[in-house]
Amino acid sequence: MNKVPPNIHFTQNVNQQLQSCLKLFNPDKIAILVDENTLIHCLPKLPSLKGMPLIQINSGEKNKNIETCQIIWQKLTDFKFTRKSLLVNLGGGVIGDMGGFVAATFKRGIHFINIPTTLLSQVDASIGGKLGIDFNEFKNHIGVFKDPDAIIICDDFLSTLPHRQLKSGFAEIIKHGLIYDLAYWKHIQMNLFSEIKDWQEFIKKSVLVKADVVKKDPYESGLRKILNFGHTLGHSIESWYLDTGKDLLHGEAIAAGMIMEAKLALDLGLIEKGYFEQLVSYIDQVFDRVMVFPTFNKIKALLGQDKKNKGSTVMFSLINGPGSCLFDIEVSDAQIADAIDFYLDSGSHK
Ligand SMILES: NC(=O)c1ccc[n+]([C@@H]2O[C@H](COP(=O)([O-])OP(=O)(O)OC[C@H]3O[C@@H](n4cnc5c(N)ncnc54)[C@H](O)[C@@H]3O)[C@@H](O)[C@H]2O)c1
After folding, report:
1. 121 Cα to the center of ligand 1, angstroms
2. CB under 6 Å to ligand 1: residues?
3. Homologous superfamily of 163-345
4. pLDDT tens, 255-276?
5. What are the sequence ranges of the domains in the chain?
6. Which of 37, 123, 199, 349 could form a disulfide with 206 if both were Cys (CB 3.0 to 4.6 A apart)?
């Protein structure tokens, strides 16, 4: 496994680390993007930003859209931001994805630093330079690839994160073990989610997995697609929840997606039954099954917009053994329907 990329900083002193990054980039202006929760819980940990212009948006996936971008672009215009200016994105994956997208497109690109404050954004969303927003009901439909100038990761932020949000982030940790790193998967299995108090080791390990995959395939022409395990069906469910105004977190959708896509892997003969049962029982022990579910036709329609599709063919990334994953796997409608039935008919639903 590679070393941590130079723009990623793990720290216990987020304020000091930010100061040294700002000194290095020497921007002519700085603004901070927050939502109502990171304003209260996270901004006070950065006293060096005191008095700097703030842009506050409403939290949540439903606000990761073009209307919110317009508000942010307008603020940057009001602040007279130039190409030498810098935006600090302080928040979870929504702030990081959207703030990064706004920064990457404003005047063809200004500097930005992401300070991820949720487990999900520390272990996954902040790494790899995928920036973007949702469009209508389609997840991350509009976006660009661009790495932040710096990513500052401090697990101290997690102390105020709601339990449900922490668990949502754990879904991506499970994914990293399943797709890429057998030793990591074994380590994850030895831990009960409810008993994990120290997240540092998990964050570092997950960042290394993601950074390693991204380094080998930055623009997702091949290997990087494995990071989408659980996300093909998972994103469809998340999109449907978004469209219908129902409440489901990203990691909760991905946990459901991983069970269904593991079933596809089993049915295609890619994994053994014992391994399948082991991973499903581990995910079930952490996550309740999602009960309110889109119809098969709706799922198929949403899959039609998946970014991994080749023409009209939906392509899956499927595990093919512990710590290993394949990509560009074609699956029939009947197999998808079977995987959904398995998910709905087994396990305990909320
Ligand atoms: N770019 C990528 O590669 C990538 C990868 C995975 C997920 N994502 C995206 O990430 C998003 C999900 O990210 P998320 O789970 O961080 O959600 P989020 O950004 O919506 O944050 C979750 C909630 O926690 C609050 N919050 C954040 N930090 C807090 C803190 N320290 N204390 C208290 N509350 C806090 C937020 O205000 C929000 O209400 C999705 O849009 C998903 O598509 C992107």
Report:
1. 6
2. 35, 37-38, 41-42, 59-61, 64, 91-95, 97, 117-118, 120-121, 124-125, 128, 130, 139-140, 157, 160-161, 165, 168, 250
3. Dehydroquinate synthase-like - alpha domain (1.20.1090.10)
4. 999 999 999 999 999 999 999 9
5. 8-160, 163-345
6. 123
pLDDT in tens, 216-231: 999 999 999 999 999 9
Structure tokens at 2: 């590679």
* CA of 126 relative to ligand 1 center, distance in Å: 10
Query: Would you state the structure tokens that stand for residue 291, as one six-digit string?
Result: 């009960």
Q: Is the pTM of this model over 0.90?
A: yes
Is pLDDT of 306 > 90?
no
Instruction: Please give the number of the atom of ligand 1 that sits closest to the Cα of 37.
Output: 37
